[in-house]
Amino acid sequence: MSKELVEALNALEKEKGVKKEVVIEALEAALVSAYKRNYGQSHNVEVQFDKVAGDIHVFAVKEVVEEVFDSQLEISLEDAVKINRAYEIGDQIKFEVTPQNFGRIAAQTAKQVIMQRVREAERSIIYDEYIQYEKEIVTGEVERIDHRYVYVNLGKVEAVLSHQDQIPGEEYHPHDRIKVYIYQVENSAKGPQVFVSRSHPDLLKRLFEQEIPEVFDGTVEIVSIAREAGDRAKVAVRSTKDGVDPVGTCVGPRGERVQAIVNELKGENMDIVEWQSDPAEFIGNALKPADVVEVIFDQQNERICTVVVPDDQLSLAIGKRGQNARLAAKLTGYKIDIKSESEYHELVDQATDSTVPSSKNN
């Protein structure tokens, strides 16, 4: 058993990268517990493992004291100096107490410790590999589905796709190959846990980087994204180089570039708008396809504004179930109140009338 254990430790270090010293330290601690559990002892004990021969020795450790109160933990100075005249009060003396049949227990314990360390090493390797892909897109295969998750096989690990991370209305079947965004990797007690999404806004960003070289190399920058997965998204872009049309670059010839992204997201509508440093212009762009007549900012809170649109475009600006206005607000970071021209002028007239002093008859 001794030589086999040493060989196992050497192989573990070579193949799994687990240092022998780390395993030996864990093994010695486990053997202390095993000794106390199997022999009903409460001694202060140590276990020493011979790294060369593989022999295991158990020692009871006793402190040298003037007067002994617990013989399992203490030894009198008088008895200590009989062993070695150099001993003094406070010294620790080790007495070997290795049981004759301790080898069998040691072998079982060593097997358990080594198996545990192998599992931990494998988990660590997988975690180290997938943490590199956090915040990135990967392609996986749908493995199985239950009431909580869609389980996606990424190769060495099974990722989970929760309901809130799925695109509403999208169906998943075993063996489907899908692109997912890894938004979190955890090194839990059960092993690496990889959480993926199809609805995350950054999935859209990574798809733009994959399909549009100018986005990937930074010529066109994605400033912000507002997304209601499976239905509609707005993407604000700007050019970092003169002469480059950011919106046209993303749309591509005959809309081919953006269509590839729409197809990947099962028909999700895509509005690509140009970011502007002028907030009024940016808000106007964000509300497209509606035209904007004027943007008036609240004097008390600069993040709140009223947007005036032509009467015949009010419903277009607000959008179905308020979606266009809601996405524009998310995209720009402004709270937007949309008014038609006639409604806005009526409010202005009412405010003007209320401030004009009434005339009195003499």
Structural commentary:
This protein is elongated. Mean pLDDT is 88; it is low at 358-362. The protein has helices at 2-16, 20-39, 77-83, 102-131, 201-211, 213-216, 246-251, 256-264, 279-286, 314-318, 323-332, 341-355; strands at 45-49, 56-65, 74-76, 92-96, 136-145, 149-153, 158-162, 177-188, 191-197, 220-228, 232-239, 269-274, 294-297, 304-309, 335-340. Strands 5-6-7-9-8 form a five-stranded mixed beta barrel. A hairpin with a 3-residue loop joins β10 (220-228) and β11 (232-239). Helix content is 39%, strand content 28%. α1 (2-16) runs parallel beside α4 and α2 packs across α4 (102-131). The longest helix is centred in the N-terminal third of the chain and has 30 residues, at 102-131. With 362 residues, it is an alpha/beta fold. It has four domains: 2-126, N Utilization Substance Protein A, Chain:P, domain 4 (2-Layer Sandwich), CATH 3.30.1480.10; 132-197, OB fold (Dihydrolipoamide Acetyltransferase, E2P) (Beta Barrel); 208-275, K homology (KH) domain (GMP Synthetase, Chain A, domain 3, 2-Layer Sandwich); 280-354, GMP Synthetase, Chain A, domain 3. The N and C termini lie far apart (120 Å).
